[in-house]
Every structure is written in structure tokens, then in C-alpha cells.
Amino acid sequence: MGRITMKLDRGTISDVARELDAIGELETRAPAALRAGANVLLPAAIAAAPVRSGRMKGTVGIRERGYGSGKAVEVGAINSPVAHLVEAGHGGPKPAPPHPWLTPAAESVEDQVVEAIAEALLGGL
After folding, report:
1. What are phi and psi of 100, to 5 degrees?
2. Exposed, middle or buried, 23 (CB in 10 Å: 0-12/13-18/19+)?
3. Domain containing 10: what range?
4. Which of 23, 57, 58, 88 is most buried (most C-beta within 10 Å)?
């Protein structure tokens, strides 16, 4: 937790993505499409990031991982060692309840993210 990972999974892709895969365009278009979705999610994630010291809000960003059909794009607290503990809570020596911020932010813009990904996949066809 602390990051939302987006990737196009060949096992669950839509018919349109399957068609793009058949003509060899999916691998070319997927990274830009995922980045388009991430660009929609990023402002919501930054706005929702908790501000106690301000450090976590400063770590919210986008990171690309993998390559080819295994490309994934992550949005969230990229370099924060505590973001997942804030999001999900913890039972450590001083237990803390969960304070979800990234999941609600992602849910609030889910339709726009899907739309941005679809638009980027289909652009020019």
C-alpha cells in the first residue's frame, strides 16, 4: 500500500485492447495510456495526502516499472517509508489505526482514469 499500481494484464484486458494486441499496437500504446491514467490520479493523490509534517505529500508522484507488456505505472508516495503504515494502520509499539488517503483518492477518480487510459489506447484509430 502507499501506491496504486496500474498495468494492462493480458488475462483481463478488454476486447479493444485484445484487438490492439493482435495487430501489435498494445505494447506500443500501453505505456502512454497508463501514464495518461496516472496523470489523472496524481492531482487527487496529492490533494488527499495527509499533512502532518508535509514530507509525505512531497513524495507523491508517478513511477514507471517494468518494460514491454510487463510495464506498470505506480502513483502514490514513491519514496515514503511510512505511507503504507498511514494508509493501513499498524500494530507496532505505538499502534495506529488506518488513515486511508490514497485508496479513497483513487476511487474518487476511477472513472476518469479508465476513460483517460481508453482514450490514449484508442487515439488515432
Report:
1. -60, 135
2. exposed
3. 3-122
4. 57
Go through the chain and tell me how many residues it has: 125
Q: Which amino acid is at 125?
A: L
**Over its length of 125 residues, how does the chain's per-residue pLDDT go in tens digits?**
577 777 766 555 566 666 766 666 777 778 888 899 999 999 999 999 988 777 888 899 999 988 766 778 999 998 888 888 999 999 988 999 999 999 999 999 999 998 898 888 877 66
The residues that bridge with 31 in the sheet, in sequence order, are none
- Predicted TM-score (pTM) of the model is 0.80
CA neighbor of 50 nearest in space, from 104, 109, 107, 110: 104
C-alpha cell at 37: 491514467
C-alpha cell at 77: 508516495
Give the number of domains in the chain.
1
- What distance in Å separates the CA atoms of residue 20 and residue 29, rounded to the nearest whole number? 9
- The radius of gyration of the chain from alpha carbons, rounded to an integer in Å, stands at 16
From CA 125, how far away is CA 84, in angstroms rounded?
Answer: 40
